[in-house]
Amino acid sequence: MEYPLSRARHGYAYRAxxxxxxxxxxxxxxxxxxxxxxxxxxxxxxxxxxxxxxxxWTRPDPPENVAENFEIFCGAAGVAHGDMVIVNYxxxxxVLKVTAEDRGRGFEKPxxxxxxxxxxxxxxxxxxxxxxxxxxxxxxxxVKGAVGLAHAGWKGTLARIGARAVELMQREFGSEAGDLIxxxxxxxCKSCFEVDLELAERFADEFKTNALFTRxxxxxxxxxxxxxxxxxxxxxxxxxxxxxLMHACTSELGRYFFSHxxxxxxxxxxxxxxxxx
Length: 277
Ligand SMILES: [Zn+2]
What we know:
Blueprint: E1 9-10, E2 13-17, E3 20-24, H1 26-31, E4 34-39, H2 63-77, E5 84-86, E6 95-97, E7 117-120, E8 126-131, E9 135-141, E10 146-152, H3 154-158, H4 161-173, E11 181-184, E12 194-196, H5 197-207, E13 213-215, E14 220-223, H6 225-235, E15 243-245, E16 270-276
Parallel strand pairs: 1-15, 5-8, 6-7, 11-15
Antiparallel strand pairs: 2-3, 3-4, 4-16, 7-10, 8-16, 9-10, 9-11, 12-14, 13-14
This protein binds zinc ion (ZN).
């Protein structure tokens, strides 16, 4: 495989909307038939350190704040509140197919079983994931009419959750990997993500390249999760020219993002969404 993935698209589009804003992939916006985005911390009602558009129910921020923030999120995204289905993440590799019957799960209805990825081929079902440094996979099949979304921290990335979502789309919807338009989301970058060297070496073994990490302090390394995300999508059959890597670091872009690592765990959550139009 050639680095640095010269045929992939690099970078993000920023869409200001209703006092907040979203990071997005131009390739998905240009294709049509799908809406998607990755939320920012701007324009919500939560106080510090959850200021202000905290979309995480598990933070020590009153649920009425989070509920109001989701109203703001939906208005800005142009999404009907009752259409959303949110993952019930455990940093694992489980991907579930959801349908219109699942709308409201994790909101007005009880949560889904534990899962970090969702796929659907139904319109008016909006997939939602939750993030505070963890990466995202946005997936769209314009041929069969299906979408996928996954939450991927280091565990999910190592478990190839992106590739598993592709497999589920192939199995459930007859999707061809070569037709998929895929983007990563914002996530913590290699320069900001220090891990134990042992973990970095597990990534190098799994994805068969030492390009994934740089040695740092003794016993430590800087790990490139977005590159691991790219490799697994290419190995799953996604075409490099259909892949976007946003290169938006949640730790560095503090004006826009909460960051679990930077804020030492005391912070809010962003949300990603995707749905067929
Ligand atoms: Zn960074």
